[in-house]
Amino acid sequence: MKRRSFLKSALAVAPLAAYSQSAKADTSKRAIRVAAGDDRFGEHLKLGGVSPNDCKVSSKDTNGVMCIFESGGVGKGGPPTHFHHDQDEWFYVMEGTYAFQVGSEKFQLKPGDCVLAPRKLPHVWTHVGDGAGKM
Length: 135
Fold this sequence. Notes:
The protein has about 140 residues and is an alpha+beta fold. Helix content is about 15%, strand content about 30%.
């Protein structure tokens, strides 16, 4: 193989190799089970004043690829409008009814519905149903 062809081939494959390594989660360690009502680390966090937020899957478990929180026991209300610089945020409603705004789009979500708030796009939600809500 000529040197020029070799260099072109190597440069063409390098970004793919880097992407595949950074995008992979480290699943070689072990399975992680978190029971209903529990937090991954035994803590019940209050993020943005919403309580409680239980970590189910940590970014530490997935090499920073994703994390999952369960937010439960929420009465009426929600956080102020905000956005995230470095991560997308996905919401899945388990109990209650929520009003969401993502950018200029408005949604009413009930159990089984979900919505994605892409990074850098302002979003806000509020629990509007009776009783407690859970996402």
